[in-house]
Amino acid sequence: MNNPNHPAPLLQLDRVGRRAAGRDLVRDLNLGVARGQTLGLLGVNGAGKTTTLRMIAGVLAPSAGRVLLGGEDLYEQPGLARRRIGYLPETPPLHAELTTREYLAFCARLHGVARGAVASAVDRAIERCDLGDVAPRLLGALSKGYRQRVGVAQAIVHEPDLIVLDEPASGLDPVQALKLRELVRSLGREHALVLSTHVLPDVAACCDTVAILHRGELRHVGPAAEPVSDVVQVSVARVVDAAQWSRLPMVADAQAIDATRWRVHLRAGAALDDFAAALVGAGIRITELRADVAPLETIFLSIATGDVAEAA
Amino acid sequence: MSAALLARHEWRRLVVQPFAWILAAVVLALMAWQFLIAVQAYLEISPKLGGLKDAPGVTDLVAVPLLRSFAHVLAFVVPLLTMRSIAGERRAATLPLLLASGLGNARLVIGKYFGALGFVIVLIVLVALMPLSLGLGTSLDIGKIAASVFALILYAAALTGIGIACSAWASQPALAAGAAIAMTGLLAVVDAGARMQGIANAGINYLAMPTHLEPFFRGIVASVDVVYFLIVAAVALALAARRLDDLRASADA
């Protein structure tokens, strides 16, 4: 999963596994993340995402294998987690009775920032996460969106090498989610970042690489942005028949979804703009043209529903 | 270093909450009321004491009973102050911040412990100032008062340890407080049956807290009693640290 644009991984999971109560929560994980790279961890509930993130964040020691940070075993040198990892759990760990600034100052000290450097580190995190308005306010009085941003701020206040975010956009409204996505994207450019989410567009927008976990096993690792699919969905203004599609040279096959929507398979190498021009030329008035189900979604669903199908 | 940082943070979180101040105000009001009643009673009987040989003084009749009474109050106050230290973190989903900070379990527990104990010691000092204020008008047995205050600090150290351990094992702060009060009660009466049968020097007596607390109030400071309280605190903190290991692996940590 290391691509040529990224140097040696900062974080390396080497056959990592975790057992509890006689069963494997996760097993045999091999993953790597380099600085400037963002890994999206996908999986249904219970797939082992949070267990994996906890092992990466230094919270939970693996039962098997090693978690290496900069080549050093995280669990042989727990101080590494303190200085070099920032972790945002699924629920931001905020002390409601403190102000944003007080809380971030504590987090900075907790992660080893020298006393004299705390104020500037807090200012930087506040600016980065756009928390200036709420810096003097009690955390207990903040909205969900701000709480999530403070959660991110506590994870980056000590300028860690590796940032681990567990469902950072969970429960946010679309505007808040969009802002958070921008923040995560900017963090991913400077740090190694591991992100767990249920939201597939977040993965496509923020991640370089995606790893899909299912039942504690790594089922897929690949680039988050797949090449555009050669299957498109076309919505038309007027009813058309299958023969009209077959007359277009770049169309291999077309299936009606309903009266005005078609799923069209393009021939290999067919360009989307040529197809659009041919539609206009053929007098087919289109109201929407878009790639069919994203490849990532297809892969995720096939993995997630595979067991259901087997069971059936 | 990190344990000290956490202790200061715990102290800060305690003192910004109304709960701790209200609890402190109620406790101090209660002790001040007891103190005034004891002084009033002493003033009423002191003329009769003048004729007695080796008559008890104000230290024995006011100061030590007040501090002994405060020990009973601490058995309820300390669990209320410690109940949220770890159970409250779990409830608010803030424990992962500490678990992921690279602090070991031992440092984490010790930081929580000293943060809470610091607040309790302030309460002890404020209560001790009440009988010490009598020194302005009469002579006090400072040695006996110092031994009593030392006893309260040791007792509070053990209770705080028990409170932290219960807070680590219970999922709810109220459960943690209840468990700590029950544990303290158990250690107070564990040898009651033996004492009723006249047994005062058996192993069971050694387990009971009053066995080790009472000598201090008589002005006797014995290392065996000091060690007892330190052992109770250490065992409790070890259990709390052990529990954090489990919490790291659990979903609700």
What does this structure look like?
The complex is a heterodimer of chains A (312) and B (253). By secondary structure, chain A is α/β, with parallel strands linked by helices. Chain A has 2 domains: 11-223, P-loop containing nucleotide triphosphate hydrolases (Rossmann fold); 231-293, 2-Layer Sandwich (Alpha-Beta Plaits), CATH 3.30.70. Chain A is built from 10 helices and 14 strands. Chain A has a 6-stranded mixed sheet with strand order 6-7-8-3-9-10, with helices on both faces. In chain A, strands 2-1-4-5 form a 4-stranded antiparallel sheet, with helices on one face. Chain A has a 4-stranded antiparallel sheet with strand order 12-13-11-14. In chain A, helix 6 links the parallel strand 7 (162-166) and strand 8 (192-196). The longest helix of chain A is centred in the middle third of the chain and has 17 residues, at 174-190. The two termini of chain A are 33 Å apart. Chain B is mainly α and 253 residues long. Chain B has one domain (2-249). The mean pLDDT of chain B is 91.
Largest sheet of chain A: 6 strands, mixed
**What letter string, H or E per element, gives the SSE order of chain B?**
HHHHHHHHHHHH
Number of domains of chain A: 2
Strand order across the biggest sheet of chain A? 6-7-8-3-9-10
Helix tally of chain B equals 12
DSSP strand count of chain B = 0
The helicity of chain A comes to 25-40%
Poorly predicted ranges of chain A: 308-312
Q: Quick check: average pLDDT of chain A?
A: 85
Number of strands of chain A: 14
